[in-house]
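Q: Hi! New to this. If I give you a protein sequence and the SMILES for zinc ion, can you show me the bound structure?
A: Yes, paste them in.
Q: Okay, here:
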Amino acid sequence: MALSRSCLPHHRASPGERCGRTQKSPRCTDHEAAFQRWRNAQPGRRALYQGDWPAESRAIRRAHPYCSVCGRVDELTVDHPTRSVFCRTHHGELEARRRAEAKATRSS
Ligand SMILES: [Zn+2]
Ligand SMILES: [Zn+2]
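A: Thanks. Here is the predicted structure of the protein with zinc ion bound:
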């Protein structure tokens, strides 16, 4: 088991882009700070996690503890755009449909 690995400055960096410092975490302290800044600046992430989404999602699941489609009570996920509760299967289907629609909109 490797106790130390060489720093990969960015999660998409290729092995050739490693800065060469070795430590137990994926990135050296300098690059970890830069990576966190980069990640926090992503528009998608900011939009998704603005406000207190984890608390809101828990409150939604408490108020509606079953899938909106099939009524299952386990593996529940709150769909962020619609604030609806789905089981993993139905949330997966919804996401797949959204991706397909987004693709259709782009190509038309
Ligand atoms: Zn580094
Ligand atoms: Zn379901």
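A: Helices lie at 29-40, 43-49, 53-63, 88-107. Let me know if you'd like me to explain how to read the tokens.
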